[in-house]
């Protein structure tokens, strides 16, 4: 039997569909959405208005949340103007980290994550969060100072989620210490970066419940996809090798994991979902791959809504279909089947001991 | 515009169906269920085993929760063995009060409600409660000491629910200061008892969000029901008078209200739901009227399950149908329509101000 505290259990049940598969939507983008709006409105990033970001998030949440088992939003632009748009049967994930990263006191290629000022996990729970999401940038070969900072940050959130008995969903995003992530050289490094990061943060001291992971290879550099639109013109691996990488990732992940979209086009993302779930992923938490093209129509809200109702909804439907064979979270070896999930402290004195 | 804090809003949205109607199930009975099990098992009440109460609650919750928009359970026998039986899209209400009442320091006809020892609203929220339910016995002509005790208890729970931003559902149950509630004399008193209690606890200082009320008349003593099985052989009012009483209750309730079943038979309860929702009730929170006959089959779990799958499910379906014309909570004059529900502190600094 595998014990799980009842608050975390209830939260995870709500995040997934009735069969235990995560089909979650992310609309917690801040820096990247402000930049996208700056581009479309021909403005400097600093001149983008709060109201425009909040309004665009409201439109996207209203149109797409009904397709999701859970919606991840942020407490700054998202929650206050979008909470009423999340249907009763769609769970609420709230982001904990400040958007982006800083490099203060470390090399400018390294990335430190930080909390949103004045925003706590207690507050998120009061606001109705069913789970907490933390994005941590991570490169296992960064300096000791950077590693320690990121590890301590994750551990803090793990402790707070345990205290409030909320599921902790940790998103790990790798980056290049040299050069760019958009290169065949980085594509070659990526499998090891993703898998080594998973090895670190599945350690029990971090108290993570679900990992939100990058696809552990870059299909733009996969030789078998040379006839696809997303192929970048150079190969780092074959499809068979990519499948093997996914298997190795699943072997490393002692926790249920879902795949993120990192803003790739929908065609590539659907392929990611197929390959990841084939290897054992329990679903996805996807944002821009589904809705990013809506931004270009802003501030024409009719055009935004048309895109969301048509193309974005089709994208979501296709992503959900691709996740139909995902491994239910309770069938991960961490739990070993629904019948083996056991509520911690289950007894006549639970109400006192909990 | 009518402000509501976002945690309470999110909770209320989850308690109701997509159209704002409450079709909620109660399985938080403790004293009455232990007594029912004692009767069927031919035991003293004190000899009924914890495990039997918990097991029966698990069976009922598993079979019937899928019909409900929300399930009300208790943290002693209910939650630890039933939480995994509540579907992801069915909200969770947790009871705060100790079962029953005491009369220490007041007349033995008067009733004082008390909390469950070592059980807090913070704990309920951590366990995933979407709302808190408090049952308070109330007779507006009780002694000053009793009135003050009950009022202070309700106010305490209102303050705690505000602090944790959880919806506060207050159940008011009247009782007889002399004689029995099963009498035409009490039936005549009941309309005033229910309405006067509503007038007390809708005062803003109690911070109640939803009232769970007794039907404000007793259909067993209603002349127009002389040909019904539940008719008790004496009349306190006509049906037209009962309808007027329901209207007066709705006029008194400055908050959305739902009807409780108090263990009446299903035929009478369905009539209650029809009349209450016609007058403006927003639905029901019903326990025994739907499932009470399951108890008699215990410990034959197959027979319990057959009854739950057949008759109890039919009861629930009929109750849901009777509530189809309930007034959506957001159409109560407290809110004035979904378009007028406004999130408190909605602004760019919500995450700091909340």
3D architecture notes:
- The structure is a homodimer of 354-residue chains.
- The first copy, chain A, is of the alpha/beta class and 354 residues long.
- Chain A is 40% helix and 13% strand.
- Chain A is built from 12 helices and 10 strands.
- Chain A has an 8-stranded parallel beta barrel, surrounded by 4 helices. In chain A, strands 1-10 form a two-stranded parallel sheet.
- In chain A, helix 4 links the parallel strand 3 and strand 4.
- In chain A, helix 7 runs parallel beside helix 8 and helix 9 packs parallel to helix 11.
- The longest helix of chain A is centred in the C-terminal third of the chain and has 22 residues.
- The mean pLDDT of chain A is 97.
- The interface between A and B is large, with 48 and 48 residues.
């Amino acid at each position: 039997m595998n014990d799980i505290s009842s608050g975390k259990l209830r939260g995870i049940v709500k995040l997934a569909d009735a069969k235990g598969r995560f089909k979650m939507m992310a609309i917690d983008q801040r820096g990247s959405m402000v930049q996208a709006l700056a581009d479309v409105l021909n403005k400097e990033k600093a001149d983008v208005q709060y109201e425009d970001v909040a309004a665009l998030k409201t439109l996207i949440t209203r149109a797409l949340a009904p397709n999701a088992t859970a919606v991840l939003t942020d407490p700054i632009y998202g929650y206050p103007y979008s909470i009423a748009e999340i249907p009763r049967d769609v769970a609420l994930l709230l982001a904990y980290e400040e958007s982006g990263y800083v490099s203060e006191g470390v090399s400018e290629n390294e990335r430190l994550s930080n909390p949103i000022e004045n925003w706590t996990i207690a507050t998120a729970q009061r606001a109705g969060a069913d789970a907490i999401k933390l994005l941590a940038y991570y490169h296992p070969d960064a300096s000791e100072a950077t590693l320690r900072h990121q590890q301590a940050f994750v551990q803090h959130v793990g402790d707070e989620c345990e205290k409030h008995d909320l599921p902790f969903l940790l998103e790990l995003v790798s980056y290049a210490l040299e050069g760019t992530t958009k290169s065949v050289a980085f594509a070659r490094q990526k499998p090891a970066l993703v898998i080594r990061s998973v090895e670190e943060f599945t350690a029990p001291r971090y108290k993570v419940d679900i990992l939100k992971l990058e696809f552990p290879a870059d299909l733009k550099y996969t030789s078998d996809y040379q006839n696809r639109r997303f192929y970048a013109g150079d190969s780092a691996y074959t499809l068979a090798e990519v499948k093997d990488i996914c298997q190795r990732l699943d072997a490393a992940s002692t926790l249920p994991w879902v795949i993120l979209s990192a803003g790739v086009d929908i065609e590539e993302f659907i392929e990611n979902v197929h390959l990841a779930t084939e290897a054992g992923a329990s679903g996805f938490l996807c944002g821009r791959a589904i809705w990013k093209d809506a931004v270009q129509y802003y501030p024409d809200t009719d055009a935004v809504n048309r895109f969301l109702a048509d193309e974005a909804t089709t994208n979501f439907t296709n992503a959900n279909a691709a996740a139909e064979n995902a491994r239910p979270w309770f069938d991960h070896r961490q739990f070993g089947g629904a019948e083996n999930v056991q509520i911690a402290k289950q007894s006549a004195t639970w109400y006192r001991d909990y």
